[in-house]
Amino acid sequence: MLPEFLSDSYSRYKEDTNVFATWLTNTAKACGHTSSNTTQVASSDPMSEAPASIRLKGNARKEAKANGSSRPPPVFLPATKHTLATGDIIIQAGIIAIHKKPAIKVPLVIQGVLRRAIRARKRCTLWFQKSTSESNKEEYKASNSSHQHFIRVLERALEILEPCFEKYKPAASKAKKPGSADNHQVPGPSSSISNRFELLEVEDTGDENLDINASEAAVSTMPTTKLPQNKSKAVTIYELERSMEEDLQFRVYCFFEDLHRVREFLIQTWQRYADGKIDLVTASLVTNVTLALVRESEERMKHLSPKLDEENSYRSIASVIRPVPVWAKTGEGIRAMLQSTPLDILVFRSTFVSMLKTIGLMGHFNRENSLASMIPISYLYLMASVLPPKGYKNVLADDHFLTLFLLDSMDAVSVRIMEKRTLEARRAGQIAPFPDSHVRPTTFQDEITKGLTSAMFTGNITVTSVFQCQLLLDMQNILGDRIEQPYKQLRHQGAISFAALGYKWKPRIHMERPMPEGNPEQWISDWGSIEAWDKAGQVSFAVQTVVKENPIVRYKQAKMVFYEPNAPDELFPANGPFSFLRGMATGLERIQPSSDPAFLHNHNPVYCGLEKLNVLVAMENVGVDLSNYLCSLAPMAHLYNALRHTGLLTLSWPALDEAIELNMGLLFNGTLPTTTHQIVSRFLLLMKWPATAFARDRRGHREGHNPDWQAVIKKLDFAHAPAGSSKHLRAYLNRTESAEKFLHNMMKESRHTPPKRGRAPSQLEMLTQLRDFLPQCVARLEVDRVTLSRQCVRLFRLIRGAFNTRLGMGHVREGLEIGDVFGKWNYITVMHAFEEAFPPRHSERPTQLQVDGESQLAIAAEILKSFISDVKSEPPIQPFDVVAATHIERSHFENLQIPRSAQRMVEELRAMSSMSI
Predict the structure, then answer these.
(1) Is-contact 465 355, C-beta < 8 A?
(2) Residue 363: which H helix or E strand, with range?
(3) Rounded to whole angstroms, how far apart are CA atoms 831 and 716?
(4) Could you tell me which residues come within 8 angstroms of residue 8 by beta carbon, excluding any fewer than 6 positions away?
(5) What pLDDT digit, counting tens, does each position of 193-221 carry?
(6) CA 18, CA 751: separation in Å to the nearest integer?
(7) Do the bridges between strand 49-52 and strand 38-41 make them parallel or antiparallel, or are there none, so unpaired?
(8) In angstroms, what CA-CA distances link 217 with 23, 211, 423, 549?
(9) Which residues pair with 39 in a beta bridge?
(10) 330: left (phi over 0), alpha (psi -120 to 50) or beta
(11) Continuous segment of H or E residues that includes residue 78
(12) pLDDT category, 363, cuts 50, 70, 90?
């Protein structure tokens, strides 16, 4: 089970207080204290059992130490929970402090968790104290008093227990570590009571070493005779008596505090991309998974209390700790909306106000005859006579960018609605349906696009959508002038993939089904089967319609043609709700939508990286099928390697070198062969020849003889396969695997070594591991298997032609049926070359099949050298020019002949595209 995302600060605080309460109560009981001031409660944890560690003994302990840890894997024990009254904390602390026979020592880890819990509470209380003003003093008075009282109780307990604190002993000392059993005796009525905090391996009181849960605290303070021997016996956990409503402010504070930690992680991720340390796909996928987890965490937060469960969840959640403005319809209201303090940074208030301004006014524009426009935030500052905040220029720049992005997000909304209407029309028979096997491609909806289009369409602003806008601003600041490079990468990858697939699509009107040029016989010859051809065709069509002829870019260009701006429309009609804003001569220009048709994609790197990943995963799937059909890439890799190591070929082939490096295990059993024996044996292993065939004492072995090549070819069963991570990438992109499940599965694929103590990693640790693991996955996906396989096929045909012309070799051996082994020809070619060049030491046959001194490997090297030179001289493929590909003149719409069955739907779409959403 994955840890709950964005509850790390609060959950850690809650666990810290539970650890302290459990240790305190159990230790006080061991000192003879009896208290009835506890109440059993139903556990809110969906897990019925809690993890705890039982001390290893004897050989098991020695073995664990040899492996680097004396801590065993967690054992799950049933747990019952009791609440401990706040007032009982001081009493129990006093009993422990005065117990002298023997004296109690407070373990270092208990000291650490208590101090950490106090620090967390103090951060929240300090923030509330700074946030309190005369206007909200009464509102926060009760909560501030509650926070301060609880902190005083914990600090008083710390003060009472301080004389009993265990002292830290440096690791260099010969004395036992602070975590050892001898230093953590918890005495009681019986000498059998022993404290087992040695399991915690604490060497200092840093937060990273305070990894303990309440179950472990309960087990560590139980007498040895009472340790649970099976799951039928439960441990008792104590938690401090605090209701959900009492802790709601603290929990919301922790939620935003963790959001800032997540923001720092994402800023670091994009800075690594900007510095060239990770690729675009990695940065985008990590960001999208993180944003999905943020969204899911917000949904869980909304269900904590009825007051949080609103569609406009930013206002309901953030208002728990900070007043949230509403879009006011009076000058005084707008003045209140713009008032801010440095403390508002915690809740991203500046970003929220910019969104509120744009979304609040969006419905009051008449867009039928002109493009929508928006006033800048500076207009409101001037109108309301509000003193500009610190960093005013940045506020204006951020507002300008967000306004442009949100305005263009409405185009994405319109395109989605039109796609939905088109699908409904096909189902209703108004438009000819696509074949059953054809899946209509659509642009991938990343979390940012999905969140902001939803906010624009519904008018509801969530915490996640505000955080997404803040992240957009962060990415613009980090990438600067290079912000358009991610979209260029996507267009370039699209052009490379489209060229590799080689499909040419017949011109068509929008409502017709797509048809490629050519004939079925040629398609089957190129791809091996009609199914493989159809799969490749769908990828090619998706690249054309989603990347090259992007529907959002096309829609915006058409919109700009249809709705040429006339005289400026009135922003605030005299009879409208915002008429009080009329007549103010500010001299400020309205913010018009960007003239860049691709503005939305040029400024959303997350979409670009995910759409590129979509193309790469689809191309890998097609490339694997083609590689297995043509059987050219693997044998060419072995021939190329042999030529390079024999010195016959000095020219390198970068594309093939990269493919070999990334598939070393599959192609060469882990390492490149460098000797004659290795070259031959690895080639045989590639063709699934058993390893026992190389044993000297095997039955039928004859010293100095090569294997029976006919038998090898007949047993050939080599097949390429997608990487294990690819199925999870594909499932995530197809939305059949949630972000949490995807993250969990990718951690398994990475074979990441768990932390020393065996605890579950935190959410940010798992995302960091994903960020470290993904680059190697992306590198494998970027290998163009389609182009490489076809190039290798052409090479083998040239090589066999030269063998036939110059050596008189037809590559047909007696007794070998090759009528149904099209792909095996390539293996046979390499087999013959190796048999000639690397004969056994005592072969009875001639060692060379030469004509005029020529050998097969020498001829192959000559052909390969010429081929590689030609490949390197080919002009590079240029990125798609999406704007040019989607540009349509106005005359096109005027002369467009639309089928009668589709006319009604097109009229509805035109009306829909002009209405205010």
Answers:
(1) yes
(2) none
(3) 12
(4) 258, 261, 762, 763, 764
(5) 333 333 333 333 345 556 666 666 666 66
(6) 33
(7) unpaired
(8) 6, 11, 59, 61
(9) 83
(10) beta
(11) strand 75-84
(12) low
Q: Could you tell me the two tokens for 100?
A: 């002298």
Do 461 and 314 contact (CB within 8 A), yes or no? Answer: yes
- Which value, to the nearest 10 degrees, does the dihedral of the CA atoms of residues 297, 300, 304, 310 take? 100
Q: At what angle are helices 605-630 and 447-458 packed, to 10 degrees?
A: 130
Q: How far apart are CA 126 and CA 176, in angstroms?
A: 40
Q: At what angle do helices 530-542 and 485-501 cross, to 10 degrees?
A: 150
CA 197, CA 108: separation in Å to the nearest integer? 9
Q: Helix 248-274 crosses helix 108-131 at what angle (to 10 degrees)? A: 100
Q: How far is the C-alpha of 866 from the C-alpha of 870, rounded, in Å?
A: 6
DSSP type of residue 349: H
The DSSP result for 520-550, as a single string, is HHHHHHHHSSHHHHHHHHHHHHHIIIIIIT-
Mean pLDDT of 733-760: 78
Instruction: Answer for the pair 210, 201: CB distance below 8 angstroms, yes or no.
Output: no
- Predicted TM-score (pTM) of the model is 0.82
Helix (H, G, I), strand (E, B) or coil at 238: strand
Contact 222, 229 (CB under 8 A): no
To 5 degrees, how large is the angle CA 764–CA 154–CA 127? 55
**C-alpha closest to that of 791 among 660, 626, 619:** 626
Confirm if 9 and 253 have CB atoms less than 8 A apart. Answer: no
Q: Crossing angle, helix 349-362 and helix 463-479, to 10 degrees?
A: 110
Question: What is each CA distance from 201 to 81, 209, 214, 237, 765, in whole angstroms?
Answer: 26, 8, 16, 22, 21
pLDDT of residue 576: 56
In this structure, are strands 75-84 and 49-52 parallel, antiparallel, or unpaired?
antiparallel
Q: What is the mean pLDDT of residues 586-607?
A: 86
Tokens of 559: 């919109």
Task: Decide if 185 contacts 148 (C-beta within 8 A).
Answer: no
Name residues whose C-beta falls within 8 Å of residue 882's C-beta, 6 or more positions apart in sequence. 491, 547, 548, 549, 550, 553, 598
* Rounded Cα distance, 598 and 553, in Å: 5
In angstroms, the CA 3 to CA 6 distance is 9
CA dihedral 43, 46, 49, 51 (to 10 degrees): -100
Show Cβ contacts of residue 113 under 8 Å, excluding neighbours closer than 6 positions: 15, 16, 19, 20, 210, 212
SS3 for 905?
helix
| Sign of the CA dihedral with 136 first, then 142, 145, and 149 last | negative
Q: Residue 682, Cα to own-chain centre: how many angstroms?
A: 37
CA-CA distance, 753 to 833, in Å (whole number)?
A: 44
Q: How far apart are CA 45 and CA 43, in angstroms?
A: 5
Alpha carbon distances (Å) from 2 to 47, 219, 392, 454: 12, 24, 42, 28
Residue whose tokens read 């009306």 = 911
DSSP code for 841: T
Q: Report H helices in 543-604.
A: 551-562, 599-602
Cβ count within 10 A of residue 900: 7
Q: At 718, which amino acid appears?
A: F
| Cβ-contact 393, 434 below 8 angstroms | no
Tokens representing 428 are: 């209703």
864-881, pLDDT tens digit by residue? Answer: 999 999 998 889 999 999
